[in-house]
Design brief:
heterodimer; A: 269 residues; alpha+beta; Immunoglobulin-like; 2 domains; 2 helices; 13 strands; 33% strand; elongated; B: 145 residues; mainly alpha; 4 helices
């Protein structure tokens, strides 16, 4: 009887210890917050969305998170919100992902983060076969489902520098933009006069398996409040420039034809 | 054998007339080439500024911004005017005066240069229309004279 009591006491102690470890771990996780509670996105320049941290990101505001070790960069330009997540992990998993969760207000209950932007990588450690895909998602019935229309572009890459950090770049469109395919039900209605709650999920999600997720605490996102002159995004500017060069080439050829016609007139004299 | 032998004076007059006409044609040719050179210079300047090879971005709505728009439009309008004059002179030398078709082609070649900026495009369009009216008015006056 005494042996049985001793056994059950040990079992209870083990269970309590296990619970304590879980709670302690949870506490550590909860304790891991962003450096700042509110982050203001300044006006910067349009970076190229290619998963590489170009020099334009030096104009962004940042905040750090300890576990997972992330640095968040934010800035705005014309009608776009640019977000860069720097994952400061040395050994990257092949199927790493970053999901940006957005709440339409400063509310930060799970169900308030109804909009999610996912960048999922594949073969991340192999530079030759490395790839990624993006998904615009919305929260419905306890899970995130894919939107039929995506209103953001994103890219992921790994730095070739010694630190080998991975970078996840997002470009989100505001609801005031004429180009915005706005989905009232599934997307955050981004307005630079408002403040939003955002949080980041980082983890691994191999195909056909359940994801391992680390979620950061919430950071409030506000925006620099000045009149932003409209600047076309780089890709539109590039198309316009190509069109202009085609136009100038056509005009140049036309002009040469005119010169040739005029030169031939000399023969008539 | 010609029935009438031309006098020395008559032959001289004919030679003078021919020489005068040849000089006139040479002058027209030179004028055509000069106009095309001006048109070509304006095309290169337009390519530099309207093609964004030289990128100056003054603050929107300022005097510098307006001045830049006017300058870009001026290159386009001068290109149009001088290229049209050059081509018209050259075609006249070939005995086939230019028609509306040439005006439209060169007009399109001119205003297409302003597609990168809406204000430049519209100012150029107005400039091209005014230049066409001016050239048409001059032509009518010359014909009357």
């Amino acid at each position: 009887m005494s042996r049985l009591r001793k056994k059950s006491t040990i079992t209870v102690i083990i269970l309590i210890s296990l619970c304590a470890i879980v709670v302690f771990n949870q506490c550590i996780k909860l304790g891991s917050a962003w450096d700042v509670e509110e982050l203001t996105a300044p006006i910067g320049q349009h970076p190229t969305i290619d998963g590489k941290k170009d020099s334009y990101w030096s104009g962004a505001n940042t905040t750090d998170n300890e576990s997972p070790d992330l640095r968040l960069y934010v800035m705005i330009n014309s009608s776009f919100l640019y977000v860069l997540v720097e994952v400061r992990v040395v050994n990257h998993n092949d199927d790493e992902f970053v999901k940006l969760l957005l709440s339409n207000s400063t509310d930060s209950e799970v169900e308030d983060f109804k909009d999610a932007k996912l960048i999922q990588t594949r073969n991340f450690s192999h530079s030759d076969t490395r790839s990624y895909f993006t998904e615009d998602q919305h929260y419905d019935g306890g899970e995130y489902l894919n939107d039929s229309v995506s209103n953001f572009i994103g890219a992921a890459n790994v730095s070739t520098a010694a630190n080998s950090y991975s970078y996840y770049e997002f470009r989100l469109t505001t609801s005031t933009s004429a180009q915005y395919i706005f989905d009232y039900h599934n997307d955050t209605s981004l307005d630079f006069d408002e403040t939003y709650a955002i949080t980041i999920q980082f983890g691994n999600h191999p195909e056909g398996e359940d994801p391992t997720i680390q979620t950061t605490s919430t950071v409030l996102l506000s925006f620099a409040s000045i009149d932003i002159p409209y600047v076309e995004p780089p890709e539109i500017r590039k198309v316009m420039l190509i069109l202009t060069y085609i136009a100038f080439s056509v005009v140049g050829i036309g002009f040469i034809v005119i010169v040739v016609i005029s030169y031939q007139s000399r023969m008539k004299i | 054998m010609p029935k009438y032998k031309k006098g020395k004076k008559q032959v001289q007059e004919e030679q003078d007339t021919r020489q005068r006409m040849s000089d006139q044609k040479t002058e027209m040719y030179n004028s055509s080439i000069r106009s095309l050179i001006v048109g070509g210079i304006c095309f290169v300047l337009s390519l530099l500024f309207n093609g964004s090879l030289i990128n100056i971005t003054p603050e929107s709505g300022t005097a510098a911004d307006v001045l830049l728009i006017l300058m870009k439009s001026l290159f386009i309008v001068v290109f149009y005017t001088f290229t049209l004059i050059g081509l018209a002179n050259a075609m006249e030398l070939r005995g086939k005066p230019s028609a509306l078709r040439e005006v439209f082609i060169i007009g399109a070649m001119a205003i297409i240069q302003g597609i990168l900026s809406l204000p430049v495009f519209f100012v150029s369009l107005i400039g091209v229309i005014l230049a066409t009216l001016y050239l048409w008015g001059v032509q009518v006056r010359v014909e009357r004279y």
